[in-house]
Amino acid sequence: MKRAKKVVEQANVSKDQKEKTSTTAESNIEAPTQSVGKEKQFLTLKQTGEQNWYVIHTYSGYEEQVSESLKQRIESMNMEDRVFDIIVPKEKQIEIKNGKRKTVEKKIFPGYVFVDMIVTDDSWYVVRNTPNVTGFIGFGVRPTPVSKEEIDRIKKRMGVEEPKYQIDLRQHDLVKITDGALKGFEGKVEEVDHGKGKVKVLVNMFGRETPVNLDFLQVKKV
């Protein structure tokens, strides 16, 4: 009799353990489903309803082509009320070629185009599927807006009429001449004129140091 009672108790314990295991398993199955649902909802939430500047990545060298293609797509697909402006940020820089200085325009962010827009499913599709666009800068399918302060700084940089000289040279620095009649010679910096973008370099010629006035783009640090 005692043995039969013991068997029944063991059976009940086993049954309780199975029920607990089943309940635990069911709760574990529901959790991932809820997580996946939230993640899917987060990744597809592209609409913000706010006008902001966004950055798209393009193949290098296709920035201008992307800008023109996007302008045409906006007009043909009636997106003027959602995509307002497109810029390829550029600034003026000074170059030395064949001993002559010239001012040229160069891209500030090669491979990137800035778009002023309201992100919706439709506008996102029009911009993202423009030829030579590889994607928006952001998390998943959610573009990250650029702050107004950053855009103001970029536009200010674009609007500078005269390029500034950025001379990373100091007195006594050793430099090599990269352009002009003395190309290949080395010397020592004696003076730096930040206002005119000029440097005076002492070059050893015929056993004596000779001062030579050069454009700062004609030399580089050794």
SSE layout and pairings?
Layout: H1 2-43, E1 51-58, H2 63-76, E2 83-87, E3 90-97, E4 100-107, E5 112-118, H3 121-128, E6 133-136, E7 138-139, E8 142-143, H4 148-158, E9 174-177, E10 186-193, E11 198-205, E12 208-215, E13 219-221
Antiparallel strand pairs: 1-5, 1-6, 2-5, 3-4, 7-8, 9-10, 9-13, 10-11, 11-12
Descriptive notes:
The protein has 222 residues and is of the alpha+beta class. The chain folds into two domains: 51-158, Alpha-Beta Plaits; 174-221, SH3 type barrels (Roll). 34% of the residues lie in helices and 34% in strands. It has four helices and 13 strands. The chain has helices spanning 2-43, 63-76, 121-128, 148-158; strands at 51-58, 83-87, 90-97, 100-107, 112-118, 133-136, 138-139, 142-143, 174-177, 186-193, 198-205, 208-215, 219-221. The chain has a five-stranded antiparallel β-sheet, with no helix packed on it. A four-stranded antiparallel β-sheet has the order 2-5-1-6, covered by helices on one side. A hairpin with a 2-residue loop joins strand 7 and strand 8.
State which percent range the strand residues make up: 25-35%
Class per helix and strand makeup? alpha+beta
Count of individual helical segments: 4
State the strand order across the main sheet.
12-11-10-9-13
The secondary-structure element order is HEHEEEEHEEEHEEEEE
First-to-last CA distance:
101 Å
Helix content: 25-40%
Overall geometry comes to elongated
CATH 2nd-level architecture of the largest domain: 2-Layer Sandwich
Q: What is the alpha-carbon Rg in Å?
A: 33 Å
CATH superfamily of the largest domain: NusG, N-terminal domain
How many runs of DSSP E, i.e. beta strands?
A: 13
Mean pLDDT: 79
